[in-house]
Structure formats: C-alpha cells, structure tokens
Write a structure and sequence with these properties.
Length: 190
C-alpha cells in the first residue's frame, strides 16, 4: 500500500475501533509508547511500522499487538518519496522496486483476560474487514500463480501498472499485479 491506501485503510477502520483500539508506535531507545489517532499519524512518527492495540481502562493500551509494517518502495517518483519520507531513492545500481508490507498478529489467548480475548477477536475482525474493503487480491507470481494472502491498495496498483518494468518482490518471490482480463463486448446480429 502507498500512503493514500494506508489513509483509506485507517479511515475504513476508524469507526470500528473508535472506543475499542488505538494505533501506537514504540521508541525502543527510550522504551516509550506513543499513542496516535490514526495510522497515517503513527506512520508519520515511525516510518516503518505501527501497532493497533486494545484500549485499556487507564487510557493506555492492553493485550496483543496487530502489527502494520509499511510497504517498501524504491523509486525516483518525487510524490511517493515525499509521502514516504524519501527513504528509498532509486539509482542506476538500485532500480525501482516495491516489496509488500504486512498486517499480522500473534497471540496466546490463554495468557489474556476473558475481556481481552473477546475484544481482541473483534479488533482483528475489524482490521481484516477494513483491509479487504480497501484492497484487492490482484497479486500473483510472475509465473501466473494467484496469491490469496497478498492484497494491493488501489493507489499502489495504479502506480505499479504505470511502471511495467517495476520489480515487485517478497524476498525471493517475484510478484506482479494480475492483468485485468477484459470480457469482449457481445454483439448480436439481427
């Protein structure tokens, strides 16, 4: 996802988590947690990842984390560089490329209170529904094998399709946006 997709995801998710969860970032050096009102705000603070957690009674967060890890984009596109903080500039030795981010969690329900177990299921369900609402499953290997666990935001999809030589990869796995198959118009003869 590009920043416009992240904003759409955050907007789609916001109503469902208004009183349930909040985005946070971690400063490992200072060992602090900072809360944010939106995914874009969290990613503005920490350009790599943000975490979605349940709100606790004390105003902080509790329970397991849902990690959002941003998409890595290597480009010369000034608009994308500005929106992503310009960390990955393409060069002659390092051509334009994109590798996926992720939305993931790991938890052990038995380690959590009953209310956290119940609410975390609701939070995860809301996050996945919002993600599916703003992305499409149009990613496949370069050999044409459809990959169900990969999704692409509309801004990222349009950006990639404008660059036919762009390298998409997830480590050794080479990816592409599935070509749109047009259905021919039906013409009836009288």
């Amino acid at each position: 996802m590009l920043p416009a997709d992240e904003a759409a995801f955050g907007d789609a998710l916001a109503p469902a988590i208004a009183d349930l969860g909040q985005w946070e970032t971690h400063d490992q050096r200072a060992r602090t947690i900072r809360l944010h009102d939106s995914l874009p705000a969290a990613l503005h603070h920490d350009r790599t990842q943000a975490f979605l957690r349940l709100l606790g009674r004390d105003g902080g967060t509790v329970g397991p984390l849902i990690q959002y890890l941003h998409t890595s984009v290597v480009t010369t596109d000034e608009a994308v560089l500005t929106a992503t903080g310009g960390r990955y500039r393409a060069t002659a030795e390092r051509p334009e490329a994109m590798s996926p981010g992720r939305l993931a969690f790991k938890w052990f329900p038995g380690d959590e209170a009953d209310c956290v177990q119940r609410d975390f299921v609701v939070l995860v369900d809301a996050a996945w529904k919002a993600l599916q609402a703003v992305t499409s499953p149009h990613v496949e290997t370069v050999e044409g094998r459809h990959l169900r666990r990969y999704r692409v935001g509309s801004a990222a999809k349009a950006w990639v399709l404008d660059r036919p030589d762009l390298l998409l990869h997830d480590h050794a796995l080479r990816l592409r946006i599935r070509p749109v198959r047009r259905v021919p118009d039906v013409v009836s003869a009288d």
